Amino acid sequence: MSADRLSDQTAELRRRAEEELREKLGQEPPAASPGFASVAPADLTLHELQIHQIELEMQNEELRRSQEALEISLVRYFDLYDQAPLCYLTLSEKGLILEANLVAATLLGMDRRTLAGRVLSQSIAKDELGLKYREIFYMHHKKLFETGLPQSCEICMEKAGGTGFWVQISSTLAKDASGKPIQRVILSDIDQRKRAELALKFLKEDLETQVMNRTAEVRNLAISVTRAEERERQLIAHDLHDGIGQLLHVILLKSEGLYSQGFNNKSQVLAKDLDDLLREAIRMVGSVTSRLSPPVLATFGLVPAFSWLAEDLMREYGLRVHLECEEMPASFPEELSLILFRSVRELLINVAKHSGKLEAWLGLSIEPAQINISINDLGIGMIDTEQYPPPEQCQLRPSEHPRAPEPDGWGDEHDFDTWGGDSGDAPVAPSLRPFRAPGVGMSIRILIADDHRMFRESLRLSLSESGQVEIVGEAGCGEETLREVARLKPDLILLDISLPDINGIDLARKLRQSFPDLKIIALTAHTDRLFVEAMLKAGAQGYLVKTASTKDLLTAIQMVAGGRNFLCVEAMQALVRRQGDEGKAELSPSSILGRRELEVLKLLAQGLASTLISARLNIAVGTVEVHRRNIMRKLGIHTAVDLTRYAIRKGLISA
Questions:
Q1: CA-to-CA distance for 558 and 492, rounded, in angstroms?
Q2: Cα distance between residue 42 and residue 554, in whole Å
Q3: In sequence order, which residues have a C-beta less than 8 Å from that of residue 485 and are 6 or more positions away?
C-alpha cells in the first residue's frame, strides 16, 4: 500500500473520529474554537486521547466485521471445495496427499483422514498396465516441478475395493503458506468416455476384420466368377475351334475338288466364291476363338500375351502399343493372369476409342510381393485431370509371383522360303540342317499329328490322291505322336500346335532332340507371330496355316523334304510386321513419358534423392523408384548422369 493512500485513510479515520466526538460532547472541540491559542495544554491532550480512543474503537469494529466476513468466506470456500463436482487434491513435492475434497475421497473410495499423507501413486491401477500408468504419472509430476508449467495426463486408477476407473489429471504448481511448492490437482472422471473409446476401438477393429473378411470373400468370389467366365469362354472357344472350325477346314479341303471337275465358267465362279467364303468363315472363327480364350496366354504366359495383344490392337484399331515389361518370375496364378490380361485389354481398347491418340505405353515391373502395371496414352482423358488427376498405376498383390515366359525371338538368324499359291516361284534359302532327301522315285513318308479325326482323314485323302506322298500314320495327341514316330520312322511330320496333352511347340522340341533327321512342318490355325517364332525356334522347317491349299501343302512338303525351309504368306507377314515395328525415330519426352514420369525425370535430373521426390510430389518412395525404372527403360538410359544429360539436351532443365 502506498504512503499517500495510507495518509488518506488516516485522515479519513481522524475526520470520522472528530465527528463522533463532537456528537458526544455537543460542542466544538477545543482545537476548532475561536480561542484555540488560549486553550490549556491539558485540554488538548485530553482531546487527542479521546480522538485516539474513538479511532481504536472504529478500527476494532472494522476488524471484527472483516473477521466475520472472512469466516463466512472460509465456510463458503470449504463448502465449494468439498461440494464441487470435480475432485481436488493438494500434493507435496514428494507426491503425498496434503488435502482432498469430499468428491476426491468418494472417487478414490476412502475418507479424507485416510487419504491424508498417502502417496497418490498407490491408487494407480495394479494390473499388467499399472507400471505403464505409474511411469506416466511420474513423468507428469516431475515435469510439473521442473518446468512450472501446467501438466495433464490420462491414467487408470482403482478404488480401495479394487474397482478400476479412468481419470484425467490436470496439475498446476502453487506455494503453501511457508512458500514451499505444492501440486494442485484436479481429477476428472473420464471412465465412461474411455470405456466408450475402448468399445469404439474394439468395434472398429471388429469392423475392419469383417471388412477384410468380406473383401477376401468378394475377391474370392471375383476370382471364382472369373474362373467360371473363363471356363465358359474356353468351352465356347473349344466348340468353335474343334467343332465348327475343324468342320470348315474339312469342307475347305473337300471343296478343292470342285476346281478340277471341268464345270462351266459359272460353276467355277461359284466354287471360287464358296472357297473365299469358307476361308473368311475360318478366319472369323479363329478371330473369335482368340478373343474368347487367347491361346498365347495359356501357351507363353502374360508378357508374351501382352505382345500379342499389342499386335492385335494394331491390326484392329491402328493403336501402336510400346511394351516395357520386366521379365516375370517363375510362377503366377492362372486366374490372376486372366484378370490382368482382360483388364489391360479393356484399358487399351478404351485408349484406342477415347483417348484421341494412336500410341500408348504399357509398362510392367516387379517388386517384392507386388506387380506394377502402368498404361500411358497422353490422350485427352475422360475427366478433369486438374481436379481429378488420373491414376497412373494400379497395383496387384498376389499370393504368388508370376511365372517367367519363354525367351522371345528365335535366337539365330534363318532365311525361309515363302509360297503363296499363284504368287510365282518361291526363292530357295539355305537349309537349317543337312538332310538326305528320299531317293529318286521314292515317295515322301508322312505322319499326320492332329487331334481332329475328320481333318486327319480329309487331309490324308487329299494328299494320297496326289500320288507324291505316302501317309504312313496318324496321331491324335503328343504321346501317340512320339510312339508312332519311333515305330514308323517317317521322313516328315505335319504337326498341329494345339494338341490335348503336349502343345506342338514342346513336342517339336522333343522330336528334334530324339529324331534329328525328322523334318517338321507346323500345320496349324494359328497365324500369330509368337507361334511362328516359337515353332521355328523349336526346330520346325516349315509353317503353314490349315487354310492352305493342297497344292501349297505339297509344295511345302517337297521343299522341306529336299532340305529347304518354307513359310506360308500369313506366317511371313507376321514376321515382317515385327521387323517393321523395331525401328523408330527418337520422340519427344512428352510423347514417351507420362505426366508424372516427366515430373520425376526433372527432379531426378536435378540430383534429388527418391525420398525428397516422394515428399515433394506426395507419392510413395516405391512409386518414385517404379517411375525411375520405367523412365530409364523407355529412354534406353542406364545411369543417372546420362539421365541428366538427356534432360538438359531436351530442355527439361537448364545446364
A1: 10
A2: 165
A3: 447, 493, 511, 514, 515, 518
**For 415-435, what is each residue's pLDDT tens digit?**
334 344 433 333 333 333 333
* C-alpha span between 63 and 165 (Å, rounded): 48
DSSP 8-state symbol, 29: -
How far is 426 from 626, CA to CA, in rounded Å?
Answer: 49
Distance of alpha carbon 42 from alpha carbon 54, whole angstroms: 19
Task: Provide the β-strand partners of residue 495.
Answer: 449, 522
Helices (H) and strands (E) in the chain, counts: 22, 16
Sign of the C-alpha dihedral computed for residues 549, 541, 504 and 295 taken in this order: negative
C-alpha cell at 80: 465449494
Question: What grid cell was written down for 572?
Answer: 511371313
Residue 380 phi, psi dihedral angles, 5° rounding = -75, -15
From residue 148, give the alpha-carbon distance in Å to each of 90, 141, 154, 614, 626: 15, 10, 19, 42, 52
**Cβ atoms 167, 187 nearer than 8 A:** yes
Say if pTM beats, i.e. exceeds, 0.70.
Answer: no
Q: What is the pLDDT of residue 3?
A: 66
Measure the CA–CA gap between 587 and 319, rounded to whole angstroms.
Answer: 17
Rg (CA), the chain: 50
Q: Grid coordinates representing 231?
A: 471356363
| Distance, CA of 260 to chain centre | 64
Any residues with CB less than 8 A from the CB of 454 and at least 6 apart, and which? 246, 247, 250
Q: Find out whether 89 and 104 touch, Cβ atoms under 8 Å.
A: yes
Helix axes 595-605, 640-649, angle to 10 degrees: 110
> What cell does 129 get?
498396465
Cα gap 375→384, rounded to integer Å: 18
Task: Specify the pairing of strand 444-449 against strand 469-475.
Answer: parallel
* Mean pLDDT for the stretch of residues 171-193: 91
Q: Which residues make Cβ contacts (< 8 Å) with residue 143, sequence separation at least 6?
A: 149, 151
Q: In this structure, are strands 394-396 and 417-419 parallel, antiparallel, or unpaired?
A: unpaired
Sheet strands side by side (includes 87-91) = 97-100, 87-91, 181-189, 164-175, 151-158
Dump pLDDT digits (tens) for 439-461.
Answer: 444 589 999 999 888 888 888 98
Cα–Cα distance for residue pair 418/576, rounded to 1 Å: 12
Dist CA 405 CA 177 (whole Å): 87
* Three cell numbers written together for 186: 484436479
Assigned C-alpha cell, 144: 510439473
- What pLDDT digit, counting tens, does each position of 205-264 carry? 999 999 999 999 998 888 788 778 878 877 887 777 777 877 887 777 777 766 555 555
Beta bridge partners of 417: 566
Query: Strands 164-175, 181-189: parallel, antiparallel or unpaired by DSSP?
Result: antiparallel
Q: Helix (H, G, I), strand (E, B), or coil: what is residue 279?
A: helix
Please enumerate in sequence order all residues whose Cβ is within 8 A of that of 144, keeping only pairs 6 or more positions apart, or say none. 150, 151, 171, 172, 173, 183
In sign, the C-alpha dihedral spanning 427, 432, 436, 437 is: negative
